[in-house]
Design brief:
The chain is mostly helical. It is built from 18 helices and no strands. The chain is globular.
Amino acid sequence: MLFNSLQFLIFFPLVVCVCFVLPKKVRYIWLLIASYYFYMCWNARYALLLLASTVITYLSGLYMDSFKKKKKGNPTVIKCKKLCVAVSFALNLSILFFFKYFDFAVDSLSRVLTLVHIQLNKPTFDVLLPVGISFYTFQALSYTMDVYRGEIYAERNFLRYALFVSFFPQLVAGPIERSKNLLRQLSEDSRFNYDNVRTGLLWMLWGYFLKVVISDRCAVLVNTVYGNYAAYQGFQLIAANVCFALQIYCDFMGYSTIAKGAAKVLGYDIMDNFRQPYFATTVKDFWRRWHISLSTWFRDYLYFPLGGSRKGKVRTWFNLMVVFLVSGLWHGASWTFVMWGGVHGLLQIIEGILAPPFEKLCDRMHVRRDVFSWRALGAVKTFILVDAAWVFFRADTIQAAFQILKNSLKLSNIGLILNDGLLKLGLNNRNMSILVFALMILLAVSVLQEKGTDAVTWITKQNAVFRYAVYWTVLILILFSLDITGQEFIYFQF
């Protein structure tokens, strides 16, 4: 069930109405039923995988909790808890590997063996990738680690824990919630609150605007160029690359915002997954702002356990590369994603090496780094690097990605900018005008957010004429976009 579908627009109000009519003590059961129905709309059989992950991590939590009365530091207790975590991770990651990476691993092995003239008879499985499997698997595993570390209690109510893993607003594309936040809230009684409903609905409206008005329009241009990239060069490829950066941001940010709004309407607060990532002044800063739930997951459950930055520079660089290579692989079973992750890891290592001498040079030259012009220059530089890396994320093969980057440097057709060149890339004049206007709105909201002001809160404090002018403008733009919408969210494939 897509957020941007008529089915969801019927499903969600029904879930909300029934939820607040039911007695408080059984609302979480209704939400669990609704969440499983939401997931089963894609493929009912794959709900068994969601249930399996839930059962494994639930039992691991109970087992580890059974040792809490025993003396801390007991070697036997520590070994048993570690074994429990290892089994939980092994079982969950095995399921994830089979459904998401098995074909990729076999195909990669076959190619390697071909180099030494060994033919591998590849087994074939007609298996579809279960939607959202990477997200709910990581969410469930974070619970296992949090219980192991003693950061949260082991939930004894199985149905409530099952709701934590399957909570439908953020089930299939995040954010990847932590048990310390969402599970705690699910243990409390949610209440109907007018302010929550209003704020949540406005967040959802903004999320639909990002997805339908901006992302889906950018997708038309991106698909046109990437579908036949050999026929384009220079300005055209640069335009497509920039539009993909906007497309994936507004697509994923749109989903996360709709999810946040839907949860808010139901009385729950889930984390912000983005914080103006294209205002970042370094690649490291970009990852503090982009897909925050995933980047913090890898930081807490992979980077820190590997040693973080505590064991010298070389080990720090190694840990960074491991994290970003795994992050790339998490996004998809393809070497293009691994390459994308590796590029980001390498960029952070280079930044870490160059930063100290560069800062000393700036100090000697008395360069001010606390002014807008310096931050703007850093943001432009970072966007160019991030946008170039996005090519590997979008291209079908690594060879295609390098060809696109190479042809992007052929700027002999730069004059097309002054000759309606963008209108020849899939979007007509009306859709291009709407896209430009929508991007201006996005920029204004992003600047407001960057200054620490929540745009929704700010709007609700304005006079009625201004508020409703904004609401209707956004709604009309969404309605004018219904002819090009209906595309799945990009991160559903992960």
